[in-house]
Each structure stands twice: as structure tokens, then as C-alpha cells.
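Quick start: what a row looks like.
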Amino acid sequence: MTATDRSIELITTAAQAAADKLAHDIIAYDVSDVLSITDAFLLASAPNDRQVKSIVDEIEERLNKELGVKPVRREGDREARWVLLDYVDIVVHVQHSEERVFYALERLWKDCPELELPADAKATRGKAQEHSDLQAEEDAAELGELR
């Protein structure tokens, strides 16, 4: 079994919404062969809690406005470290970059086929590492100024 056309439409719209809000490392997997509860997972991350919330809100708004769907469940809002949006056909995970590295969901689903995403979403690959490297440079420069 493979993800349905509807699931792919949802994933594509959600991925573009995440990219528009500057999410990092957006990737989607067709999990329909290994899970009976959903067709696809979308993973995205952000370097801070406020951006995680912004990405989640944009995904939810865009899917509602453009495709007329609302999540049946939304979890993790309070801490905004890992927010899950369950649309039944797809599940969206937006994680703080630290949680993304720690839980490494990509390792769990690496044997599942990747779904094609819009160019803007693909362009986010490696952005978390770039952000981390830049932050380390800024921290080192600041530390040097303090000495």
C-alpha cells in the first residue's frame, strides 16, 4: 500500500506552510506499509519554542483554509518543544531542534520511502546544522569579548 493522493496533497501543503515559516529539515515519509493508523509523517524543526508554535499554527491554518481539514488531535502545545498534529491521513511533527536530534525520528522511519516535497521544503535540509554552527560561532565570539 502507498500513501493516498489525499495524503500526499495534505503533506505537500503542510510542508510548504512549514517552509514558509522557516522550518528546518523538512522531510516526509510514506509509512502506510508499516502503520495502519496513518499514511504519512511530516517532520520539521525550529530553533526555538516560539517558532515551533508559529510553524504549527501556519500548518493548521493553511490545511484548514486551503483543504478544509482540521486536526483531530493536537498535542504538545504547552511546552512547544514537540507539537503533533494528527489529521488521521497524515501526522505532522514539529520539534524544537534539540528534540529533533535527541529523538531522531528519521532513524525510526529511514526504511520508509520519502515523499516528494515542494522545492521550498527541500531547500530547508541542513538548515538546523547551519543555524547551530552560526550560533556556536556567535557564542564563541561573545565569550572572547568577555575575556
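That is the whole record. The radius of gyration is 16 Å. The first helix runs from residue 5 to 20.
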